[in-house]
Amino acid sequence: MSLKLVISNLWKGYGDKTVLKDLSYVFDEKKVYVVMGPNGSGKTTFLKICALLETPDKGEVHYYNSTNKILPKDINLLRKITYVFPEVGIFNTSVFDNVAYGLKIRGFNKKEINSKVEEVLDFVGLSHKKKQNALTLSSGEAKRMGLARAMVIKPEFLFLDEPTAFVDAENVKLIERLLIQIKEQKTTTIVIATHDSPFAFTVGDEILKLENGKVFEVS
């Protein structure tokens, strides 16, 4: 199934501040969309609404399948969508078990879990850390582990909120390389919110600016 996300006439506010104003956009290709904008512009709110983690005050958020049918917002759809927060939530257990979590709750057997986790840890360069307690990882390693945990379940939509925040230059380059490899596979639509302009223009296919509650295409 190939998912398309259509955002229509979105409004969202907190108290007396409106952050999204009649915003509409369509994510319909397997590529990297990067949302940029100043602090408080609503980037995180926009991503969370897209990922079905928050509801808008007004407007529509619909995922469509390859036959252009609107999909119900049920567990089947939610399992095709993954959101990675700026600070990766880490369980007090090994790196391997952190990455395996999503597979376990989906009912994969032990052999499948071992194979998939080993593959994705190799992909993000953390195979040598698999038995280490995840709480001891550096911030950059934790970001890569979060990406591994997201990718191991093979989402069709991956939302990344500030993936290079609190990360050293070496890990930024590693994350850039990983995202470029993921988009070359053309199996996942990636939507990123970031302040990091060089990172955005390195990995992004579409650069979007969120300003005054609306999204504008930069390139």
TrEMBL record:
It holds the Pfam family ABC_tran. SUPFAM superfamilies: P-loop containing nucleoside triphosphate hydrolases. Residues 5-218 form the ABC transporter domain. Gene3D superfamilies: P-loop containing nucleotide triphosphate hydrolases. Keywords: ATP-binding, Nucleotide-binding, Transport. One of its GO terms (molecular function) is ATP hydrolysis activity. InterPro entries: AAA+_ATPase, ABC_SmlMolc_Importer, ABC_transporter-like_ATP-bd, ABC_transporter-like_CS, P-loop_NTPase. It comes from the Bacteria. SMART domains: AAA (SM00382). This is Sugar ABC transporter ATPase. It comes from Thermodesulfobacterium commune DSM 2178.
